[in-house]
Amino acid sequence: MGRDSEDEGVDTQEAIMRATYRALCKHGYANLTMQAIADEFDKTKGVIHYHYDTKETLLVAFLEYLLDAFNENIAVDENEEPETRLLTLIDTLLFGPPERGEFDHWELMVALLEVRSEAPYNEEFRRQFTHNYETIEATLVAIIEDGIDRGKFRDVDPQLAATLFLTALNGARIYQVALRRDDVAQLTRDGLEAIIDDWLRRSDASTDR
Amino acid sequence: MGRDSEDEGVDTQEAIMRATYRALCKHGYANLTMQAIADEFDKTKGVIHYHYDTKETLLVAFLEYLLDAFNENIAVDENEEPETRLLTLIDTLLFGPPERGEFDHWELMVALLEVRSEAPYNEEFRRQFTHNYETIEATLVAIIEDGIDRGKFRDVDPQLAATLFLTALNGARIYQVALRRDDVAQLTRDGLEAIIDDWLRRSDASTDR
Questions:
Q1: Nearest residue to A179 (alpha-carbon basis) of B128, B201, B147
Q2: Do B191 and A113 touch (CB under 8 A)?
Q3: C-alpha torsion sign, points A101, B176, B164, B188
Q4: pLDDT per residue over B79-129, tens digit each?
Q5: Which of residues 138-157 of A touch B (CB under 8 A)?
Q6: Which end of chain A has fewer surrounding CB within 10 Å, N or C?
Q7: How far apart are alpha carbons A184 and B119 in whole angstroms?
Q8: Which of A114, A84, A93, A139 has its CA nearest to residue A21?
Q9: Under an 8 A CB cutoff, do A178 and B120 touch?
Q10: Distance in Å from the first CA to the final CA of chain A
């Protein structure tokens, strides 16, 4: 193993993460064993143990990897108008990024749902999910504050509005993923658009959309 | 076993359900083995196998048991005004029932969160969660339709508004349970109240609250 250059180490870790992802999609979280991961990996099980000495260490690194992929999927253009940015973020969180990234959005959502169900029992998972939550929350608060500053949005409490959007989006993703209720995302999208139009937007503001 | 009267059979099943609940709270879903359940049960493991021949059969019965408890926790008084019923349902879903039932609301939420993470892989779980979703959805739609009929609420699309409330409530529960973000429930409550006051309620309707 000592022969691995740093680059090769990164590539190997990336390969282990991809193997873990494939194993998770195939077997589900409850059956995600080191053996199941090794079966998806083209080197020996020893190589996995060299990089991650316990299953927990591997899963913590894996969650970070999933959340990075998630964050790449939801990046928004900061030059757009607040209302456009808000609707783009809503659409991306509900329907996935317009240009499909490396990961299928829904496979990623199912994977994250499963890892999150362990969060009440795992402090490190909770720390990472909380960071993810706070990142999206801060993005929403910034968009809403910008809309208020520009006179486009009513003078609502940005934190309160951000929480409402974030919980609705998260709840919709969960229902869609867990229950395969494909109509929930579209209904939530329409509901949030109605809230933006009739509650958040100043009735005297021009629409630039 | 043949000596069990029907009542004793029901009592035994109830005892197995309680043992499963204790085992789940103690070990988490991923570690919920038949042995872990048997360890919480005061009869032999054979009695569990007599009533439920596989772990899956037991877990399907257990989910039904959890959802029944959940439905008991969220019952609303149909004689109240629509807005009061809506706020009561919101409060109950966010903070648990005013009079604590047999189950601690948050323990129950954690348990349901974990079982639900398996729903994408389990058709019977999905069927039960979908039924639960549709029950709460129908309750919300009925309250909103009633509010519109009585001239208290604006003429919104009841299905769309119900989905928005339901996804926000579900998302808030998930964040609170999984991330232990205790502020999310209150922020969501305040956000939904603002939506009811400034979007759903007719501005010319009297408030009976």
A1: B128
A2: no
A3: negative
A4: 889 999 999 999 988 887 766 566 677 777 777 877 887 787 788 998 998
A5: 156-157
A6: C
A7: 16
A8: A114
A9: yes
A10: 56
ipTM tops 0.85:
no
Tens of each residue's pLDDT in chain A, 209 residues: 444 455 666 799 999 999 998 898 888 777 889 999 999 999 889 999 999 999 889 999 999 998 888 887 777 778 889 999 999 999 988 887 776 566 677 777 777 877 887 787 788 998 998 988 998 999 999 999 999 999 999 999 999 999 999 999 999 988 888 887 878 999 999 999 999 999 999 987 655 44
Structure tokens given for A197:
């139009």
Residue B161 CA to residue B143 CA, distance in Å, equals: 11
Rounded to the nearest 5°, which phi and psi values hold at A103? -110, 140
Q: Is the dihedral of CA B96, B100, B103, B107 positive or negative?
A: positive
- For B33-72, write each residue's pLDDT tens digit: 999 999 999 988 999 999 999 988 999 999 999 888 888 7
Question: Do the Cβ atoms of A114 and B117 come closer than 8 Å?
Answer: yes
What was the pLDDT predicted at B102?
64
Q: Which of B24, B94, B117 to mutate to test the interface with A (most CBs of A within 10 A)?
A: B117
Q: Which domains does chain A have, with CATH numbers?
A: 6-53 (1.10.10), 65-200 (1.10.357.10)
Which helix (H) or strand (E) is B64 found in, with range? Answer: helix B55-73
Structure tokens at A137: 């929350």
pLDDT at B209: 45
Instruction: Quote the minimal CA–CA distance from A8 to chain B in Å.
Output: 34
Q: Do B178 and A113 touch (CB under 8 A)?
A: no
B191–A114: do the CB atoms touch at under 8 Å?
A: no
B6 C-beta neighbours (distance < 10 Å), count: 7
How far are the Cα atoms of B69, B85, B179 from residue A119, in angstroms, in the given order? 23, 33, 7
Round to whole Å and give the CA distance between B181 and B34: 32
Dig out the tokens for A46 from the structure: 């020893």
Nearest to B174 by CA among A97, A183, A73, A112: A112
Place of tokens 């994408």: B120
- Which backbone phi and psi does B146 adopt, to 5 degrees? -60, -45
